[in-house]
Amino acid sequence: MELIVNGRSAYAYTGGKRFDPGLPAVVFIHGAQHDHSVWVLQTRYLAHHGRGVLAVDLPGHGRSEGSPLETVEAIADWIAGVLDAAGVAQAARVGHSMGSLVALECAARYADRVSRIALVGTAVPMRVSDELLGATRDDEPLAQDMVNIWSHSAYAHYPSNPGPGFWVMGENLRLMQRQAPGVMHVDFNACNAYGNGLAAAEKVSCPALLVLGRRDVMTPPRATRDLLKALKNATVAEIAGSGHALMAEKPDEVLDALRAFLPDAAIKA
Length: 269
Fold this sequence. Notes:
Number of helices: 11
Distance between the termini: 19 Å
Largest sheet: 8 strands, mixed
Number of strands: 8
Structural class: alpha/beta
Radius of gyration: 17 Å
Oligomer: single chain
Shape: globular
């Protein structure tokens, strides 16, 4: 689905169903150096079970026009523009990594437009090491290798990655390589510079879910302690055997967590 946001074309995957703004809406927000495709299992299921799904490509990513936005706050405002363009008054937000910070900021800035938030692979603050941040600026292939290794709990996944012909780490590397040069540094710098996380969390009144990988070394579960104290209505789903790339490593478990968290929706033909 193509939308016009701030005068530029923006792409949103709708899960294989025509988007219906009358259904309970869920906006999926990808992380740094990614696009909408990281949500393929979760979005298809929800779109075929009574939800209106918008899995966006952020500006400068995937099929969306423009330059990558430089701050989490700017991305949160852009997401509000996506809802306007799609004719949606209120929606749940589901964000991974950088996208989780955006979902959090959205809930603080646009409380009446956010029904609930799910923060997948999150941490507040989301600091990036000087070594990695420098590599995103000076040596993207090195930075991509670093992120790919640190994002996954294992080099190979059982059984069969988790299906024949599917290689979790190879797919993630290729996805990162598809993004335009310079996007990676803008994204990781936005994560590192975002300092409003705890203040935003204190303003959030809607239900919040944290979906955390027990073996995540990029955003380890312990990095959410202050966030959980600041949020008024939060629950945690910790997924065993997963690193930071939860949607690829444990797709069914992530979907189960989201299904339990999102309100039931009547299936509409």
